[in-house]
Design a protein that fits this description.
The protein is mainly beta. It contains 2 helices and 25 strands. The longest helix is centred in the N-terminal third of the chain and has 11 residues.
Length: 353
C-alpha cells in the first residue's frame, strides 16, 4: 500500500504599494496618514511609528511632482522598407529603395477604418516619407503601407511597432538602472527572491520603462513580470476582432480571424518574405476561451469580464509540470506549484488587505 503525505498549502502574501492611489479600486479612497512622531523622547510613539513604517500597506502615497522633458527619447532613425517587418520608432521613415521621383505613401492599420486611425496619405517629392509622431503609431500594433509613383510598380508591406526591442538591443547597466543603446530609453528593475518548484523558480519582478503599456493595478510605466510556464502574458482583442498575442519579452504577434475559430497570423513585410510560419497557432474554443499552441505546450486564455483582454487560465507543458496563474480584474492574483501545493499570493494597494 502506498501512503500519501498531505502537504499543507503555504501561502506567501506579497503586498506592494508603489503608488497606492494609482492601484486603488476606489477613486474616492485616501491613503492612510503617515506615522507622526511628535516627541522623540516618547518611546511609545517611536515604536508605533517604526511599526507602521515596516508595513508597506500603511505607507502613504508618494507626493505628486511636475516633471519636464519626454519620458522616452524620440528615436527618429528607423527606416521601413518593403523588406522590413518591425519599426523601433513611433515616427519611422517609409522608404522605397533605389527609387527616384515623386511618390505617394498610404499608411493604415488593420481595422479597415473602424479604429479611426487612417488611411493617412503623404505625397512626397522623393521616395521617402517620414511618419509624424502625431500620426499616433502605437507600441505592438501592425500597420500596412503602400507607395505609388507614375510609371513605377507600387510597393509596400506591413510592419509591427516595437520601440523596446528587448531581444535585440544592447544595454548599459549600472546596478538596477539600464539604458538601451539603440532607443536611449532608461529602465529600472527590481526582482523578488524565488521559490523552487519543478515547473521552474517562482518569483516576480517590477520593471519600469517609459514606453511600457499600462497595466491594471500597477502605476503607469511599471510592468509586473511573474514566473510562468508560458512564454505569453495575455491576448488583446481589438474591436475589429484582430488579436494581439503579447509575449513575456514584450514582442507582439498579431492575428486576423478566419473560419471555424481559427486565426491567421498577420503577414509582415512584403509578400516575398513570409514571417507567418514562425508564429504560434491561435484558435478560439467553443467555450469562448483561446488556445495558443507551440512545440513547448499549450496556453489557454479567457477574456476578463468588462475588458478587451484575455488572461492565462491554464498551461500544459510537454516536459514538466506547469506553474499556475490566477487572474481577476485584470490583475495577477496568485502563482502556484501544482506539485507541492505552495502558492504565492499578490495584494494590491487600495484593496482590502
Amino acid at each position: 500500500m502506498r501512503h500519501h503525505r498531505l502537504r499543507p498549502t503555504l501561502a506567501v502574501g506579497i503586498a506592494f504599494t508603489l503608488i497606492a492611489t494609482a492601484c486603488s479600486d476606489d477613486p474616492d479612497s485616501t491613503p492612510p496618514p503617515p506615522p507622526v512622531v511628535t516627541d522623540q523622547t516618547d518611546d511609545t510613539a517611536v515604536d508605533r511609528g517604526a511599526a507602521a513604517l515596516s508595513d508597506p500597506v500603511q505607507l502613504p502615497a508618494l507626493a505628486g511632482a511636475t516633471a519636464t522633458g519626454p519620458a522616452v527619447p524620440v528615436y527618429t532613425g528607423a527606416e521601413v522598407t518593403p523588406q522590413s517587418w518591425v519599426s523601433s520608432s513611433l515616427t519611422p521613415t517609409l522608404v522605397v529603395p533605389g527609387a527616384s521621383g515623386a511618390w505617394t505613401f498610404t499608411l493604415d492599420d488593420l481595422s479597415d477604418g473602424e479604429s479611426g486611425f487612417g488611411p493617412l496619405v503623404y505625397a512626397e517629392a522623393g521616395p521617402e516619407a517620414r511618419v509624424p509622431l502625431e500620426a499616433g503609431l502605437q507600441q505592438g500594433r501592425v500597420y500596412t503601407w503602400r507607395a505609388e509613383s507614375p510609371g513605377s510598380d507600387p510597393v509596400g508591406g506591413s510592419f509591427t511597432v516595437d520601440t523596446q526591442l528587448s531581444d535585440a538591443q544592447q544595454f548599459d547597466n549600472a546596478g538596477a538602472i539600464s539604458v538601451a543603446l539603440s532607443s536611449g530609453e532608461a529602465g529600472f528593475a527590481w526582482s523578488s527572491h524565488t521559490m523552487a518548484a519543478l515547473g521552474g523558480s517562482i518569483g516576480f519582478a517590477l520593471r519600469f520603462g517609459g514606453s511600457n503599456v499600462p497595466e491594471v493595478g500597477v502605476p503607469v510605466g511599471w510592468n509586473l513580470e511573474a514566473a510562468s510556464s508560458s512564454p505569453y502574458v495575455r491576448l488583446d482583442i481589438s474591436p475589429d476582432e484582430t488579436v494581439a498575442l503579447v509575449a513575456t519579452n514584450g514582442i507582439t504577434t498579431n492575428y486576423e480571424p478566419a473560419a471555424d475559430g481559427a486565426y491567421v497570423p498577420v503577414q509582415l513585410s512584403s509578400d516575398s518574405l513570409d514571417t507567418t510560419g514562425a508564429a504560434p497557432v491561435l484558435t478560439r474554443n467553443g467555450d469562448g476561451t483561446f488556445a495558443v499552441t507551440t512545440k513547448g505546450g499549450t496556453t489557454r486564455f479567457a477574456i476578463e469580464e468588462g475588458t478587451s483582454s484575455a488572461y492565462i487560465v491554464g498551461t500544459a507543458a510537454t516536459d514538466k509540470p506547469s506553474i499556475g496563474q490566477s487572474w481577476s480584474g485584470g490583475r495577477l492574483r496568485s502563482l502556484s506549484d501544482p506539485v507541492s501545493g505552495r502558492e504565492v499570493t499578490f495584494r494590491y494597494g487600495g484593496e482590502t488587505c
